[in-house]
C-alpha cells in the first residue's frame, strides 16, 4: 500500500486537512494511527479505504479493502443477516460463502438470535457488532478500523483485538485508530501520528529479532501460508518446528487447531530472542 503526496480538503479555498502525506506499508503490518481530535485520522483511513477521494496525490491500495467506521448508520432497510450477506457479495464472496461467514461472525459476536432484526431496532452496541462483522467476513487485504471498538462490550472488544492481530498475522495489513492508548500496544508493528496536516512516524516497532518468540512442534500437513509467517524446520521424526514472534503465536495456534485437517501440536515453548 502506498500513498504519495496525498492531500485532502473539502472544497476549493477550504483549509487542508491532510497535505503531502507519503506512506508505504507492506502486508502483515498492524499499524496504529494517532493524533488529536480533528487532526485528520479518520480522513486518512477513509482515503485508504476508498470511502473518499484524495484532492491531490495518489493512493495505491492493492487487493480487497474493508472499513469499519466509529458510528454505524443503522437507518438502512435491512436486517442484520441480509446486510451481511449483501456486503459479503460486494466483497466478492459467493452466496454460500457469504452466508457461512455471516453466520459465523453473528455467532461469534453473540447476536445470532438477532440476525433477523432490522438494523434500526438494534442497540448501538449490536449495530457496531454488525459493522465490525461486515469487515471481518471479507478477510480483506487491508482492514481499516476507525475507533471500531466504540460501543462494544468488553468481550466483543477482546474478540476484535484478536481478529485484528490474526488478520495481520495472516498477511493482511491493518490500520487502526482508537482512543485507548493501550489498544493492541503489544502487537502493533508501527505507529504514526497525524499532526498539522502531515503524517509522522511516532514509534515504529521493527522486527529486529529482539522480540519474544514461540516455538511450536507439530505433525501433520501444513498449509503453505500460516499466520505470522513462521520459520519452519523439518525434524528427523517427520514433524515440523515452527518459530514465530510471540505476538502471532495465538493466531498461529488457532489456525493449526482449526485447519482441515487439524495439525497435531506436540509442544509449545518459548523461543530465543536477540
TrEMBL record:
Record's keyword terms, sorted: ATP-binding, Nucleotide-binding, Transport
Entries under InterPro entries matching the protein: AAA+_ATPase, ABC_transporter-like_ATP-bd, ABC_Transporter_VariousFunc, P-loop_NTPase
Start and end residues of each ABC transporter domain: 1-221
Keyword RNA-binding carried by entry: no
GO molecular function per UniProt: ATP binding
Regions annotated as coiled coil: none
The name this protein goes by in its record: ATP-binding cassette domain-containing protein
Taxonomic source organism: Kitasatospora kazusensis
Phylogenetic classification of the source organism: Bacteria, Bacillati, Actinomycetota, Actinomycetes, Kitasatosporales
